[in-house]
Amino acid sequence: MWGRRRNAEARLLTEAGETLAYVMQVAEDAHGLLRDARVRLEDAHHQVSATLGFGDGLPANTVRAQLAQSQATWDSVDSMIATYEDMRATWCDLADADFEAIKSAAEFFTEYSQNCASVVPDLEGATDSFIGLRDTLLGLRDKVAPIRTRVHAAMAAAADELAWAGPAAQGRFALEARLNAVGDRVRALDAGHIEVEPDRKVTDWYRDVETEIAEIRDAVPRAAY
């Protein structure tokens, strides 16, 4: 009787070990997909970040705020990965494991596989969004470049015209103050230190300062008389 019971327990333990080995392999496959998705997301993140910081008018502050929002997702995924790898290392050898421990481990690895199946599509969606954002920024750089060139040329011309008008020109100092303020705005635009609004494009901001510079230049001859 006792022998049959021990044999039955041994058989159950063997079957539980085989089941655990299977779910561990499924979890390992899911883990590989999760790690790959995590790497692709990080690469897309870096591609977006690499477009910023060149002083070419891209909205760096707004984009960096968007990039920062992905940190919580990364932290969660990295925690999942670390927990799994610790558990996996614990279960490299099943020799001394009892039935309840094996059952608990099988539940963990099964749940991990399910979580991976849920998280991977989210990471892939975020990766696609970052790639789309990168392409949008590269396109925006091309659109901004000619307007930005005109703005800087107009700024330099306005400064020259004010200098030519001389200190005695009526209203010269007020015009210089206006031009200096516009210069501050242009530098902020170039550095991307503006918050993009839903109904205002970066090109709109540059066109605004281009118009204001034109108004200042139109006023210079009148101030010189």
Sum this structure up briefly.
With 225 residues, the protein is mainly α.
Walk me through the structure:
The protein is mostly helical. 84% of the residues lie in helices and 0% in strands. The chain is built from six helices and no strands. It has helices at 2-49, 60-68, 70-90, 99-165, 172-191, 202-224. Helix 3 runs antiparallel to helix 4 and helix 5 packs antiparallel against helix 6 (202-224). The longest helix has 67 residues, at 99-165. It is rod-shaped, with a radius of gyration of 32 Å. It starts with a helix and ends with a helix.
Element pattern in H and E: HHHHHH
Described by strand count, sense and barrel closure, the largest sheet is: none
* Mean pLDDT value: 90
The percent range for strand residues is under 5%
- The tally of beta strands, per DSSP, is 0
Give start-end ranges of low-pLDDT stretches. none
Question: What is the CA-atom radius of gyration, in angstroms?
Answer: 32 Å
| Total helical segments | 6
List the helices and strands and how they pair.
Elements (H helix, E strand, L loop, with lengths): L1 H48 L10 H9 L1 H21 L8 H67 L6 H20 L10 H23 L1
Helix pairs in contact: 1-3, 1-4, 3-4, 4-5, 4-6, 5-6
Keywords for this entry:
single chain, 225 residues, mainly alpha, 6 helices, rod-shaped
